[in-house]
Amino acid sequence: MGDSVSPTGVDVAIVGAGPIGLCFAKALSRRGISAMLIDRQPRGAMSDPGNDGREIALTRASRDILEALDVWPRVPDAERAPMRAARVFDGESLFAMQIAPGAASDDPLACLVPNRVIRRAAYQAATATDSVGAEILWRDGREIERHETTDAGVELRLGDGESVRAELLVAADGRFSATRRSMGTPAHTFQHGQHMLVCRMQHEEPHDQSAWEWFGHGQTLALLPVSEFCSSVVLTLPPAEMEALMALSEGDFNADITRRFAHRLGPMTRAAEPHRYPLASVYAERFVGPRQALIGDAAVGMHPVTAHGFNLGLQGLWRLVSLIGEARSAGQPIASRDLLKRYQREQRLATGPLFAATMAIVGLYTDDRPPARLLRKAVLRAGSAAWPVRRLIAGHLMRAGGDR
Ligand SMILES: Cc1cc2nc3c(=O)[nH]c(=O)nc-3n(C[C@H](O)[C@H](O)[C@H](O)COP(=O)(O)OP(=O)(O)OC[C@H]3O[C@@H](n4cnc5c(N)ncnc54)[C@H](O)[C@@H]3O)c2cc1C
Fold first, then answer.
1. Confidence tier at 400 by pLDDT (50, 70, 90)
2. Could you tell me the distance, in angstroms and rounded to a whole number, from the CA of residue 315 to the centre of ligand 1?
3. 106 in a domain, yes or no?
4. Distance CA 380, CA 193 (A)
């Protein structure tokens, strides 16, 4: 890039210090590989992230990876809510498909942790002094202005003029990734035309530590168990209806949510500010390019209905970091074409079927025409009768991770 000042050198430059970028940097550091984290947010927003209303249902495999990265021990016990089972209802029917671990297992199906707490714990782990770790360089409040790939490496120019040379550039800047665009990587983007509201609510009746997914007509409701008398409500509505709901006074909002849940948990009252997300799913056409890779939502931005975005992102970064670590130990280049292709192949296999299944579920459950209603009743009954189907889903949630 024609600069007289010599560039800062680093093994891997990561754009995006969200939960995935932070965990990836920590995982690289643990393998003795230096990383630079570039994020447009200031450090204060990373060390003490604001509440975004998201409760992340962590699978067994994700908890294992977070444990290996020293993130899980930094999640206080009081912030871990076990989810023992999941029930799926259709319309007014009280019939539910239940997904639960086998009777022999004490382990919950998943563990709910607020996204804010995961981000904070990941930041603390990434900044902790680690005797075995390589250095993590921080470039907060900054973005990439441009980048160029050569045979020797990737050259980056940051917004403040700093030049950086890396072996590999990794985009971890979320589902609308500007880095992915600047890499020239197209992505399949699906706008669902729906908004999702998330909000913690207190209720008078206890829940049984089960998550409810409830496909009513014209709306989708979910309830995630936070503590005995508190749940996170997740409601999906068309934008105009969501607008009207958000404009209600707190009392009317409480009454509206109580009615939507058909008083099953008694009167419900708001315990935190509601947050709203326009729903879009994204699947990148390629996860890699010359000396480039996509991880987390920048590669696969899942619809939250199946609660897998972060879980899949963790698996992906673990895959990539394991390949990079093996290459470095063997004295091989860490950004070779073969290595990146292998990451892409494995991560597409792990995410493609679940992405397609999630899109099918979203399509089926947001379609209120009579044939779709009949079909979903049949699907629920088939799923409920076929214990292998339930075992498969429960097995996916509970499978141990960190297997490389
Ligand atoms: C309501 C809701 C509920 C969810 N529930 C679950 C769940 O139960 N289970 C689950 O597994 N997943 C869940 N998810 C998905 C999960 O939250 C995401 O998969 C996860 O946050 C992705 O992390 P990320 O680090 O890839 O991206 P992000 O969290 O989007 O972080 C991206 C980072 O990049 C930075 N950035 C962006 N652009 C730039 C730029 N141009 N330059 C520099 N920095 C930039 C941002 O500041 C940010 O720090 C849910 C999502 C939603 C919306």
1. low
2. 15
3. yes
4. 25
Count structural domains, the chain: 1
Res 34: pLDDT: 96
Indicate whether 155 belongs to any domain.
yes
The closest-lying atom of ligand 1 relative to the alpha carbon of residue 59 is 11
Compute, in angstroms, the gap from residue 57 CA to the centroid of ligand 1.
14
151 φ, ψ (degrees, to nearest 5)? -65, -30
CATH number for the domain including 82? Answer: 3.50.50.60
- Cβ–Cβ < 8 Å for 270, 199: yes
Q: Return the sign of the alpha-carbon dihedral for residues 157, 147, 5, 7.
A: positive
Range of the domain at 316: 8-189+280-398
Per the document, the length of the chain is 404
Q: Is residue 393 part of a domain?
A: yes
- Closest listed residue to residue 172, CA positions, set 8, 35, 350: 35
At 292-332, the pLDDT tens digits run: 999 999 999 998 877 789 999 999 999 999 999 999 999 99
User: How far, rounded to the nearest angstrom, does the alpha carbon of residue 211 sit from its chain's CA centroid?
Assistant: 18
Judge if the beta carbon of residue 306 lies within 6 A of ligand 1. no
Q: How far is the CA of 339 from the centre of ligand 1 (A)?
A: 25
Q: Which of 14, 24, 56, 139 most suits a substitution to test ligand 1, by most atoms within 8 Å of the C-beta?
A: 56
Q: Is the pLDDT of residue 402 over 60?
A: no
Residue 75 forms part of a structural domain: yes
Q: Closest Cα partner for 117 from 64, 142, 81, 65?
A: 81
